[in-house]
Amino acid sequence: MTIDIIKKAAQILFESKSTIALTGAGISVESGIPDFRSAGGLWSKYDPSEYATIDAFRSDPEKVWRMLRDMDDLVANAKPNRAHLGMGELERMGFLHYIITQNVDNLHQAGGAKNVIEYHGNSSTLSCFGCGSRYTALEKKGEYPAKCRCGMILKPDVIFFGEAIPQEALNRSFQLARSAQALMIVGTSAVVSPANQIPIIAKQNGAKVIEINKEETHLTGHITDVFIQGEAGTIIPDLVVGLKEMIQTAT
Ligand code: APR
Asked: Which protein residue's CA is at the shortest distance from atom 8 of ligand 1?
């Protein structure tokens, strides 16, 4: 990718007083977790209407746990990659204020980011529909399907299709999008609502939009100001280097 497009994006981040990011599964692909809609992604193996809706879970939890077990194995061994680490560094440098993520893999936090809003929950805890008990994924490691002491099959605290996004996450993210001067969109096809409203709200309120993706999305033509095509694990570190150079020359 051309250096000057990195410089253009870095300049936006350098000048922005309130920068947020919206991330999706693409940012964790280089940690070994496949995304959903690329070729070979999770939805090419498991039909989301059969495995990823709350109705599917309620009617046949054992079946849904076959997919959850697959995801568990991938997430349990995943480490933050250079994109997660780079975003943690952007936050520490003061060039990134909040990350709104659709991912449930906890890798932004593991990569050093502190201000993370999780739209779709987090797979590190599980709850019982029956008695309300909560467990950590560690407590239930290797137990498939994971069961509550009351005998019910547990559900990971991730949002299935048909469930509401946590109200606090929704309110806070829309508030941040309204006041953002810059928005980074990293590794998401932006097809799932309401997360895909964030770029529209930010753009409508004057934010400059930087999109980082291996391929163009439906946002690229009309919402995105700077499209950087490629892998997030390469591009985010390049942005960090670009900003460090700007700090050097500015002092
Ligand atoms: N670097 C940058 N982008 C990448 C990379 C990478 N290394 N690998 C894949 N991508 C891009 C793909 O090109 C695609 O546009 O990341 C995007 C991933 O899109 P999806 O698989 O649709 O994942 P996501 O957008 O997070 O899905 C949103 O849908 O199924 C639900 O709940 C699930 O949170 C998920 C939501």
From this structure: 26
Which amino acid belongs to residue 48?
P
Residue 21 and residue 183 in contact, taking contact as beta carbons nearer than 8 Å = yes
Give the ligand 1 atom nearest the CA of 52: 30
Residue 218: active-site member: no
18 Cβ neighbours under 8 A, 6+ residues apart: 97, 176, 179, 180, 181, 182
pTM over 0.85: yes
Domain 35-77+123-158, CATH 3.20.170.30 — does that match? no
CA distance 34 to 174: 28
Atom of ligand 1 nearest to the CA of 35: 21
73 alpha carbon – ligand 1 mean position (Å): 19
**Second CATH level (architecture) for the domain 1-33+81-120+165-251:** 3-Layer(aba) Sandwich (3.40)
214 Cβ inside 6 Å of ligand 1: yes
Q: How far apart are CA 1 and CA 229, in angstroms?
A: 7
Ligand 1 closest atom vs CA 103: 34
Cis peptide before 145 (omega within 30 of 0): yes
Q: Give yes or no for residue 121 CB within 6 A of ligand 1.
A: no
pLDDT by position in tens, the chain (length 251):
567 999 999 999 999 999 999 999 999 999 999 999 999 999 999 999 999 999 999 999 999 999 999 999 899 899 999 999 999 999 999 999 999 999 999 999 999 999 999 999 999 999 999 999 999 999 999 999 999 999 999 999 999 999 999 999 999 999 999 999 999 999 999 999 999 999 999 999 999 999 999 999 999 989 999 999 999 999 999 999 999 999 999 88
